Amino acid sequence: MEIADLFGYAGIFTGIAFMVPQTWKMWRTKSVEDLSWGMLILFFLNCVFWLVYGTLTGAMPVAYVNAVALIVSITQIVFKYRYRNNP
After folding, report:
1. Using CA atoms, how far apart are residues 83 and 21, in angstroms rounded to an integer?
2. Which H helix or E strand runs over 51?
3. pTM of the predicted model, to two decimals?
4. Per-residue DSSP letters for 2-40?
5. Which of 7-39 are b and which e, b meaning 16 or more Cβ less than 10 Å from the residue's Cβ?
6. Confidence bin at 87 (pLDDT 50/70/90)
7. Dmax over Cα atoms in the chain, in whole Å?
8. How many CB atoms lie within 10 A of CB 6?
9. How far apart are CA 41 and CA 37, in angstroms?
10. How confident is residue 53, by pLDDT bands cut at 50, 70 and 90?
11. How many other β-carbons are positioned within 10 Å of the β-carbon of residue 72?
12. What ranges do the domains of the chain cover?
């Protein structure tokens, strides 16, 4: 394994992990008032664009991490809609 691969795998881990704590908090507290729709939509689009890029260029680690991140993003959007009236 080369050093570049190690950075790639570290990127995969952090790419998936950085939004998971927020998603967990949203689910646990049922509170979404602190999250803006703008941030959620930008995160969603970012995941889509990187997933397409990774797929088209054959950069599968990029595609994989963004496929998982897209699931996290969609989950957050669903929570934001579902819990929108909670205090």
Report:
1. 17
2. helix 37-57
3. 0.82
4. -HHHHHHHHHHHHHHHTTHHHHHHHHHH---TTS-HHHH
5. ebeeebeebbeebeebeeebeeeeebeebeeee
6. low
7. 49
8. 10
9. 6
10. very high
11. 20
12. 48-87
d(CA 32, CA 25): 9
What 3-state DSSP class applies to 86?
coil
User: Residue for token digits 């990774």?
Assistant: 54
User: Identity (one letter) of the amino acid at 51?
Assistant: L
Instruction: Indicate the average pLDDT of the chain.
Output: 89
Cβ atoms within 10 A of the Cβ of 63, count?
18
The pLDDT value given to residue 55: 95
**Tokens standing for 63?**
């595609």
